[in-house]
Amino acid sequence: MEDHIQRLIQEKIVRETQAKTRRHFIKSCAQGMGGLALSSIFMGCDPLAKPMAKKTVAFSERDLNPLATLAPPFAPKVKSVIYLHMAGAPSQLEMFDYKPQLQKYHGQDCPQSLLEGKKFAFIKGTPKLMGPQAEFKQEGQSGNWVSNFMPHFKKVVDEVAFLKAVHTDQFNHGPAQLFMHTGSARLGRPSIGAWATYGLGSPNQNLPGFVVLTSGGNTPDAGKSVWGSGFLPSVYQGVQCRSKGDPVLYIEDPDGMTRDLKKSTIDAINKINKEEYAKYADPEILARINQYEMAYRMQIAVPEVMNINNEPENIKQMYGVEPGKESFANNCLLARKLVEDGVRFVQLFDWGWDTHGNIREGSIDLGLRNKCGEIDRPIAALILDLKQRGLLDETLIVWGGEFGRTPMQENRGNKKMAYKGRDHHGDAFTMWMAGGGIKKGVSHGKTDDIGFSGIEGQVSVHDIHATILHLLGFDHEQFTYEFQGRHFRLTDVEGELIKEILA
Amino acid sequence: MDVLKQLLGRLHPLVVHLPIGFIILGLLLQWYDRKRKEYTKVISLVYLWGGISAALACITGYLQYLGEGYAFDTVKWHLWSGIATALFSFLMYAKLQEIQRIDFLGKVPIAVLAVLFFVLISFTGHQGGNITHGEDYLVEPLPNHIKSALGFETFEEKPIVLNEENWQEALIYDDVVKPILNNNCVSCHGKKKTKGELQLHTPEVLLKGGENGEIIITNNPENSELYTRLVLPKNDEDHMPPKDKRQPTQEEIELIKAWLSIGNPFEGAIGELGMEKELFLSFFPKKHNADYPDIQIAAASQDTINAIKSHGLHVEHISKASNFLEVSCINKPSFVDSDFEIIMPLKEQIAILDLGGTQITDAIFEKLATLTNLTVLKLDATAITGKNMELLASLEHLKSINLTGSHLEEIYLRNLESFKNLEIAYVFGTQVEGEGVRRLKDGQITIDYGNYELPPLPSDSIIY
Question: Cβ separation of A75 and B330 shorter than 8 Å?
């Protein structure tokens, strides 16, 4: 064994020397001299500067482990977040925002005053209004409206706080999803989960701090940027896990590689890294050593936590899981298990909510009903399961899409379509939150009689972000990251706390 | 011409510094030359220049008074003393030049004149400063008690004190509206400063309004500037208070609106007026609602924390604002009763302790009872049966206890009744039978039995 390592080290030295050309030598000499001069200037100026050698030894815990936990500025209400995103945008008018008046106007032309200056993805000319395609009832003690598409949800309606007048300024899936998850419709910003793991770290040393689970057949239109780390260090991006096959791609050792061999490989690499560290005292090397070890531990821990087969039968029934398949129900159960194990942010994406009415699956009466059936039981089960385990009080659940849908029937190409559908609509849609620090059984915000615009308690995407950060113990205006000479925030220069739904 | 007038007028604050400089220079030279009298000629020349520049300052000052629309009462002292300064400077020149015509001053010693002159220019300068910066400019930084000792009126925030018991008896104007206006508006619209000719410190002046007329239209907040100015976008020029000043809270603004819409009564208690409690909730004392006790404690040393972490235990501050800690065995499932010694140095600081999934037994309760500030305790997925759990009854901060998936036995569950401030216990997945929630101790303690079910429905499309 020792021999192997010695040979590896020897090889490394030889390679290093071979790789260095005369030009490298001169270049590094020049840099070195310049650096020496500069550092003596800076050190001389700063009376508080510590000698170099000391500084590299006194690294913080974060240098070693980028996911080491940090205390938030204020006492947090929740430790973890589970964000349920219905990619494609669910119709608020068939789920939670009951508009009996809209039924009255069913089939009539949409008033021109509403259409002026508005952009729609597909609607052309003058569309017709379409009444709710589901039946509504007031449920629970709170008496909040829930449609018959969500029959199980009534059991948890008193746990959630509805936001009935959310608005966004994007009307296409990609930009709207980016906006919803990164606070900007353009690429390059960190997602909410990345901000959360950057700000707080994650307590479990064997699991990623930010896990993403997808279902419904496709990843969101905006791609993996919706769980990206933007300008934050890439270690804070979401780790996509799968409920079918290997939970993380390439997590299994290849054939012929035993666990012992893997261990000794990593030991050898780390031994070299440690020697490298002894030579250069660069904390980056320590971080690398740590990451190798974490990856080795994750190989065992991730498949374990991602395995739902060991759950009791009644729990599997409650969620309606489909073992071996990729389903939203499986992901909800996994979300609970991950949160139970201290994962900071769990992001669920379910694809297939884009109900334009162009195909049967995308119809507002048939397709949407099926999609609701796929999430109704799992969501109710998730809330109840977290509750009975004492986790609901320290977890925040957020539900929503990237926008809502029009009160008008879609008339793509100014023609009658094969099925009933609604177009993209960002002026007013419904989201809800539940869990720690959230008022139970309230409804905030109102839309007009036909559900076109918010008329009371309008909240923006930034407001939602501000509220999520608040519950995690941050002031969204103070929580910044310096990049390209500017202090960036998740909420940019906007966002106000939605106090009405805070307990 | 108007342009020139205004432009010259605005040069006044610049020009005034010339005479001040000359005159101070003259006075200093006079003092320096008091014995030898060698520089008399120079000094007289300096005073001549001083006089000329002071006259210029007087002219520009007068133009500014006309152009900027100051009230004569505001500037009169500065104006007269400014003219006096100019004249005095010429007088000093004449005296030093020994011009015959001022013989009547012959008997007054030059030193006395110099002292008088110094007083005069200081007074003039101070008056001028008061006009531009406001009368309290210099005293403003002083602490309140010194200010009041000096005879200045002090601005004090008047807190709004309401609570569950007294809110209905509180007087709407004196106890709520007046303090809101006092804390947010009166520093500019009050007795001392009256910007926009508007005062807001008494009922009479509130009804009187300001330079744009009335600010209260009875029963009509949407048209009353007292309200509408508050809700304009912050960047709007008419937004009040100005955007860099302290802003009233959303709740305070709502309250002003509510008060205006019931006819802005200056008398009467909240209860009599039938105003809703919701409007006042934000003024009630904030309940401490966090997972640690509402007390101050000493911080644990970083070395102690690091030593405990090196055993594989997870230790973190609950927030940067508190010294309380959360300790968890999330990365150390091998934790046994005897390992408790490791965390003993933190026994005062631990508010949240998570021993879930560890190897502990009922012997742990005796040790847990020493954690005086323990607020949240998690013993889920352990072998504890609840025997000796009553030892925790002495922990007065313990709010929540999680026993899910443990070996908890029914007979020990009743011990929870003796816990002082326990709010919730989770017992799902134990041998204790039950479902949903039940309350103990007159509803103070919630026992969550869990076992929630979602019975199958015919419409179910996903079935395990």
Answer: no
What is the CATH classification number for the domain harbouring B426? 3.80.10.10
Distance CA A61, CA A71 (A): 13
- Assess if residue B455 is contained within a domain: no
* Overall pTM surpassing 0.80 (yes/no): no
Domain boundary among B215, B249, B283: B283
> What ranges in B163-249 are assigned the alpha helix state H?
178-184, 203-208, 225-231
- Whether B437 is covered by a domain: the verdict is yes
How far is CA A218 from its chain centroid? 16
A173 touches A222 (CB < 8 A): yes
Do B40 and B80 lie in a common domain? Answer: yes
Q: Is A321 on the interface with B (CB under 8 A)?
A: yes
Do B99 and B32 share a structural domain?
A: yes
Nearest CA-CA distance, residue B290 and chain A, Å: 7
Cα-flanking dihedrals φ and ψ of residue A192, to 5°? -55, -45
* B321 CA: distance to closest CA in chain A (Å): 6
A93 and chain B: CB distance < 8 Å anywhere? no
Taking Cα atoms as reference points, which of A80, A136, A101 lies closest to residue A343? A80
Q: Which residue of B has its CA nearest to A315?
A: B453
Tell whether B454 lies on the interface with A, counting CB pairs under 8 A: yes
User: Residue A422's beta-bridge partner residues?
Assistant: A409
Domain span holding position B404: 302-450
Beta strands B424-426 and B445-450, pairing class: parallel
In a domain, B156, yes or no: no
Low-confidence ranges of chain B (pLDDT < 50): none
For A502, the 3-state DSSP assignment is: strand
With respect to residue B314, please indicate whether it lies within any of the assigned structural domains. yes
ipTM: 0.84
Question: How many domains are contained in chain B?
Answer: 3
Q: Residues of B with CB below 8 A from A342's CB?
A: 328, 330
Q: What angle do CA B454, B456, B459 make, to 5 degrees?
A: 120
- With CB atoms and an 8 Å threshold, state whether B330 touches A204: yes
pLDDT 10s digits, A358-389: 999 999 999 999 999 999 999 999 999 999 99
Are residues B251 and B222 part of one domain?
yes
Average pLDDT over residues A49-78: 68
**Cβ-contact A68, A198 below 8 angstroms:** no
Cis? peptide before B241, omega within 30° of 0 = yes
